Structures are given as structure tokens and as C-alpha cells.
Amino acid sequence: MSTILIVDDDIQLSSTIKEVLERAGYMPTVLHSGEEAIEIVKKENFDIILLDLIMPGIKGIDAMVEIKKISPRTKVIMITAFATIDSAVQAIQKGASEYISKPFKINELLTVVNRVTEEIKFADNIKHVDLDFALSSFSNSIRRDILSMLYEKTKMRFMEIVKQLEIEDSRKVVFHLKILKEANYITQDSDKLYFLTSVGEVAYNSLKIFKDYLVSSKKK
Q1: Cys-Cys crosslink for 14: which of 8, 110, 146, 158, Cβ 3.0 to 4.6 Å?
Q2: Which residue segments constitute the domains of the chain, with CATH numbers given?
Q3: What is the pTM (predicted TM-score) of this model?
Q4: How far is it, in rounded angstroms, from Cα 49 to Cα 30?
Q5: Is the confidence at residue 1, as pLDDT, over 90?
């Protein structure tokens, strides 16, 4: 699970957030000022930082700018009061990935954190995929279905794939299998069973993460 840094001068709130995230399987660390946050990211890596917008000393948005300079890959989620939504929008424009406004419910917090975690997974997976070809493959529903079937079934014979796709002209399936095979997304064993390669598994997981992210975004 992602490593998370919680930065909020409200000791009770930050303690509650820490407990919620620990129960969800995350590994949170708590600090109470932007200055401390800037110093710790110089020494430690965090996937996500939950950063209060309004704190004594350096403000959250200014701390975020410095943090992103030190650790560009770290995702920042701003914590803001309802009255400072405009400031949260500014923070997103300056590099924050998300914001959550106080008071928030546990499920709202976890939804935002999970969504940003999925963004991180997608970004990590897509590094190992030919992006142009991946997008081309994902744009075709037949190829998406083939990848999904092989992921679920592990191995399948040609006629099983044709039957499950419910395509009368099997030549179409041959065509799409050929494209996926030439891209090293799928291969066959000695028994002519099709299965995903390691590259194909990464491509499928990237597709799934992207789809899950789009679904969660629509629920915002």
C-alpha cells in the first residue's frame, strides 16, 4: 500500500486520519507543520501527502510547491475548510492532485486517497507499456475483451475465444489475436493455448486501473 504523510496542525484530526488510514492498510506518518513536511521529504519518500491548507507558519500551498520541487512524483491531497475552496482550486492548479474539504466523512477520505493511489498505480504501470499501441489496443472493444478474458481464464483455446466473443467470422478474431501477439501482449504454449505475457498483464492492469479511475471520477 501507499506510504502517506499527514500534515495538519489539528492534533486530534490528524490522529483520527492516521487511525482511519491504518485500518485501511496504509502506512501513515503524522507531522504538524509545513516546515516539518518539507524537511522530511528531503530524507524520506512518500507516495501521498495529505496537507492542510491553513496552518501556522508556512501555508499549505507554499509547502506543497516546495515539496513538489523536492519530490515531483509525490501526490498531494489538500485538506481545506469549506470557506477556502477557491484556494484549494489554486492548489490543484499549482500541482495538487486532489482536495478534501472539512468536515469530511471517513468514506469520503478513503475514496479520495484510493483514487489517488490508483493514479499512482496507473502511472507506474504505463511506464512499461508502449503507450501509443496500448491506446490503440484499448480503443478496440474486441482486443479489450480478449485481454480481459485471458486475464480471467488464464489460458484459452482459439475456439473458446471465438465462442465467448460471439463473433461469427472467426477471421476477425484471428486478426485481433495477431495484433496482440505481435505486440507481445499474448502468446501461445505448446498446446496452442493463448495466454497473457508479462507485458500483456501490465497492459491489462493499466487498462483496469484507468477504467476504475474514470468510474470513481464520475462519482465525485
Answers
A1: 8
A2: 3-127 (3.40.50.2300), 131-217 (1.10.10.10)
A3: 0.62
A4: 10
A5: no
